[in-house]
Amino acid sequence: MVLILDNIAKIVSLTEAEKELFLSKIETQPFKAKTILHNAGEICKHSYFVNSGLVRSFNINDNIVEHVLHFACEGWWIGDMYSLLSQKPGNLFIEVMEEAEIVLLSKENQEQLYFDIPKLERFFRILTENSLVAHQERLMDNLSLSAEERFDKFCKRYPTLIQRVPQKQIASYIGVTPEFFSKMKSRMLKK
Amino acid sequence: MVLILDNIAKIVSLTEAEKELFLSKIETQPFKAKTILHNAGEICKHSYFVNSGLVRSFNINDNIVEHVLHFACEGWWIGDMYSLLSQKPGNLFIEVMEEAEIVLLSKENQEQLYFDIPKLERFFRILTENSLVAHQERLMDNLSLSAEERFDKFCKRYPTLIQRVPQKQIASYIGVTPEFFSKMKSRMLKK
DNA sequence: ATTAGCACTTAATGTAGATTAAGAAAGTTA
DNA sequence: TAACTTTCTTAATCTACATTAAGTGCTAAT
């Protein structure tokens, strides 16, 4: 059972030959917790697909504060889209949070696959569309909802992550300080 | 000169026959200012490309406050991606701000074109990727920058819009009230 | 066992930006 | 031209969240 093929099969169906070609273009590796897969300031060469474990992307602003863009656990893709697409140095760090097995797809192989298997261009188009919609919603939520409401939405959307992710990182994802998050959480429990 | 073909030509090159097929699938219409192209609660049937004029997408939250997601002037695409992709009722309104000429591409025609002209699937994939990157950056900016810094970025990124868009809408886009925006602007001018 | 490091909590104080309200300016329609 | 609507400004007050700082408890390395 190859998780990434299941992931693709949910959107497009590949022939056996296409599956084999695809598998020949990817590489699967184990990583320890705290490994940095990609550093800000460097050019991103791969898309990452998480087979197991937990990964996050984040940036660090001038005041040395981290802001989490994205968490990815089993079955999710993650990367620095800006750097990958532009092949310029990006602002994101990508870090393994829990010991993980990760599929690497290089930019060159990805582009090659678009030519060899047009269905994969469709697959990534749809994947990107879904990601865009999620980002639009998160953006609007950040403009119009309170921190409590954003946390509620986070809990509903990513129930499994709440147990696994340190709470300071959830605070960062929803856009508040760990101190305020702690206070807010205890306030919410009282209700 | 057809603006939308130039727009496509920047990313993929179509043959004359493909251009003609594409043109046969779109519809161009004039709209007056204040026309609502798409209402929240309805299912979005079209992608919109702006030939001339100015359009915005926004939502309205429980407190009857508008939040601008996106402005689109000449050469930009706009739509309710969530509703268009899911074919479910969306949360966005799409409104013409300045008398406009707009290209309509129906969802069915768009999907048909993906089959007939795979290069267009590539075109929209790349368009969506670029949009995603822009949304990721805006999201991170909202998490880590002050209102002044967000306004500075807006000015640099969309210099032509500053003259054309009512300032209360810019305030909404960067995520502050019109009152605070007014105060902030005069404070910034003093420097 | 001891220390060091990190996640979390609590509390005092500070501030960016919201809210409310009122008036001035500017655009729109009759 | 006036009458109406909408945008913008100013100012007082309020609050959600940040900052700073100190302390608690857990894990993990020495």
From TrEMBL, chains A, B:
Protein name: Crp/Fnr family transcriptional regulator
Domain Cyclic nucleotide-binding, residue spans: 10-113
InterPro entries: cNMP-bd_dom, cNMP-bd_dom_sf, RmlC-like_jellyroll
Source superkingdom: Bacteria
Gene3D superfamilies in the record: Jelly Rolls
Pfam families for the chain: cNMP_binding (PF00027)
CDD domains: CAP_ED
Chain segments annotated as coiled-coil in the UniProt record: none
Taxonomic path: Bacteria, Pseudomonadati, Bacteroidota, Flavobacteriia, Flavobacteriales
